[in-house]
Amino acid sequence: MIREAKNGDIKTIVALGMEFAKTPVYAPSIGEKADRYSAAKTAKHLVKQGSVWVSEKNGEITGCIAGTLIVHNWTGKLAATEIFWYWRPGNSFDGIRLFKRFEKWAEEMGATQVHTMTPHEKVGRIYTLLGYSPRERFYFKALGGGS
């Protein structure tokens, strides 16, 4: 089942985020540096905004997705951007259902585009199957001793 997240889900959303931070793709840059307080603050803000959804099986949250709306700097039109998307291994279909719910929300809110990113081609293939095409690459550089 996919449902909108509630305040009572924040602890579990943060736990999922900590799992995500330790995955092979993100562990080198986030890993043990992930800050539960910052994650909880962000999740609380997004839950209040109504832009977080969770997948649930047998009363257990198995994944989550969150996004926000922006005004596109070149077109002036509303766009939705994914902030985080993670599901526990073995729950791939939940991941797809979460993303489709995010798209539905974006459309309901009047967005004309969805922006998202991928850490590797496996997720890129999912986006392609969902009708997305690559536009730019996302690069990362730590500054001032940050991660």
Description:
The protein is α+β, with helices and mostly antiparallel strands. The protein is built from four helices and five strands; from the N terminus they run βααβββαβα. The protein is 35% helix and 23% strand. Strands 1-2-3-4-5 form a five-stranded mixed sheet. Helix 1 crosses helix 2 (36-49). The termini are far apart. The model has no long low-confidence stretch (mean pLDDT 89).
Supply database-style keywords.
single chain; 147 residues; alpha+beta; Aminopeptidase; 5-stranded mixed sheet; 4 helices; globular
Strand and helix layout:
Blueprint: E1 2-4, H1 10-21, H2 36-49, E2 52-57, E3 60-71, E4 78-87, H3 92-108, E5 113-115, H4 121-129
Parallel strand pairs: 4-5
Antiparallel strand pairs: 1-2, 2-3, 3-4
Helix pairs in contact: 1-2
